[in-house]
């Protein structure tokens, strides 16, 4: 009976629809009926219909309503692009952890970081370890981005370049607040009161 059920799963059409997301494998699907985990060894595309996320990976494991793990990842949301060596997406928590991330949105172009945490329910991205943005010109130990508020907070040692001007922060206590509006970036080391909440998010990613 188990063999027949497994054969039924493996003979599904290329797109399999579930309540939360749809799956398009690039090759075979391997389903573990004991754990409920499906493996796409040749990768594929997963679309989260509830949250508007589209994930492509060269290797994917997922469990419906629980998690998605992937390697060689491109994750697209409505306004952001995440490319990473690896991802682990906790579906109920709406959180994704990335290894070796390259992040781009309307305000930041090609931000690289060793590791990152995306909190999709709160529109927050936390990046740590060798953070470097192509635009605006920023290098930092850590960066917290508020996608909805179009604000960001760099933490720890940082270097920020705008035209001929350069701002630098030394030591663990250094901070730089960025606000994006009208195609321009406002940068200041004097944090507004609302920026403190962004600092708290940084602790969510060790």
Summarize the structure in words.
The protein is mainly β and 206 residues long. 8% of the residues lie in helices and 59% in strands. The protein has a 17-stranded antiparallel sheet that branches. The relative contact order is 0.09.
Task: Give a nutshell description of this structure.
This protein has 206 residues and is mostly beta strands.
Number of strands: 17
> Kindly state the mean pLDDT as a whole number?
89
Order of helices and strands: HEEEEEEEEEEEEEEEEEH
Distance between the termini: 46 Å
Q: What is the CA-based Rg, rounded?
A: 20 Å
What portion of the residues fall into strands of 2 or more residues?
over 45%
Largest sheet geometry: 17 strands, antiparallel
Percent helix range? under 10%
SSE arrangement:
Layout: H1 2-10, E1 16-17, E2 21-25, E3 30-32, E4 37-40, E5 44-48, E6 53-57, E7 59-63, E8 67-76, E9 81-90, E10 95-104, E11 109-119, E12 124-135, E13 137-146, E14 151-162, E15 165-169, E16 175-181, E17 184-188, H2 196-202
Antiparallel strand pairs: 1-2, 2-5, 3-4, 4-7, 5-6, 6-8, 7-8, 8-9, 9-10, 10-11, 11-12, 12-13, 13-14, 14-15, 14-16, 16-17
Search tags:
elongated; 8% helix; disordered N terminus; single chain; 17-stranded antiparallel sheet; 59% strand; mainly beta; 206 residues
């Amino acid at each position: 009976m188990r063999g027949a059920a497994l054969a039924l799963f493996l003979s599904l059409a290329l797109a399999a629809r579930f309540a939360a997301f749809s799956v398009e494998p690039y090759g075979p699907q391997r389903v573990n009926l004991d754990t409920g985990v499906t493996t796409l060894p040749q990768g594929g595309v997963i679309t989260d219909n509830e949250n508007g996320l589209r994930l492509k990976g060269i290797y994917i494991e997922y469990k419906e309503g629980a998690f998605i793990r992937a390697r060689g990842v491109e994750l697209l949301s409505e306004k952001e692009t995440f490319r990473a060596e690896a991802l682990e997406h906790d579906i109920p928590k709406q959180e994704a952890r990335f290894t070796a991330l390259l992040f781009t949105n309307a305000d930041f172009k090609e931000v690289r970081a060793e590791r990152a945490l995306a909190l999709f329910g709160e529109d927050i991205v936390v990046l740590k370890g060798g953070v470097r943005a192509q635009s605006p010109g920023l290098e930092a130990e850590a960066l917290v981005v508020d996608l909805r508020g179009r604000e960001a907070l760099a933490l720890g040692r940082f270097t920020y370049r705008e035209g001929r001007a350069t701002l630098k922060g030394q030591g663990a206590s250094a901070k730089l607040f960025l606000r994006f509006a009208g195609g321009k970036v406002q940068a200041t080391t004097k944090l507004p009161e609302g920026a403190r909440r962004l600092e708290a998010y940084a602790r969510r990613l060790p």
